[in-house]
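no rush on this but wanted to send it before i forget. what follows is a protein written twice so to speak, once as letters and once as structure tokens for the fold. mainly i need to know what kind of three dimensional shape the backbone takes. thanks a lot i owe you, the record is right below.
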Amino acid sequence: MLTGQRRLVISIVMLLCLSICYGAGFFFIKISLDGFSNLSAGAVRIMVAALSLLFIMSLTQHRFSLPRESHVPVVLNGVLFIGFPFLSLPWILNHIPTSMVAIYYTTVPIFVLALSRFVLGRPISTSKWIGFLIGSVGISYLALSQIGAGTATIDATRPSWFILLPHMVCILSSVALAAGVVHMSTIRDFRPVQYQGYSLLAGCFLALPLFLFNAPTTFPGWIPIASAVMAGLVTTGMGQALRGLLVQREGATFTSRNGYLTPVVASVLGLLVLGETLTTAHAISYGAVAVGLYISAQQR
């Protein structure tokens, strides 16, 4: 039987690993776009992830068994809470830098908090509200300070409203991911690997036709292929399995905190490999997020 302190340490390590998986995902998807279209890159990610989860499922105690009550939820999760964010992300990354996208995805804990409270009626302590509020202020400051750089990548011939579209889609993707976390937490006989695996299989019903109609007409290159596979294998496959385990282990709110850590990984990779820039606003924002996380971790 694990002690409370040891259990917490293991959960934190799992959370860090999850953040690395998700943070690297923006990098892998961005590189894959050198050889794939937006939809084909997102589709490959989902299909590779589904195959990796099927393999992991074969190694678990329940193997391919899924409770009847989860049959409809996995379809909903795969089509909406996985399909929409994963298929839209490559398009978003064509218009917004990876560090910027990661910042928008950091709003996931805020939406998890709101959905847990207002949809499920779960109580949230005052300290958690204050902590998330401080973190949100830091995130908002960084997003506003970077918005000019993000809009600079938009084609000037597009209509003016198109400038905001990638940002709006990012926010909707964050809502979908948050809904997925909360949705998982409501299932009684929850089997995380099976649930995520079958959700990704459901997502394949969207991904496969989209890939067939948007497949590259020429050889995309080994680096884009490897990046697309890594995005599915590491970010989505391992990441989704790990997220499911964490939701089962610690709950939706704890798991959603990876959203605060993921931008750090994404920004470092963007700075060192993709040539993106980091500003003082990043440091100020991450400082606010760290304070918010500390306060929200308090019991009262």
User: Anything to note?
Assistant: The chain is about 75% helix and 0% strand. The chain has one domain: 14-296. The radius of gyration is 19 Å.
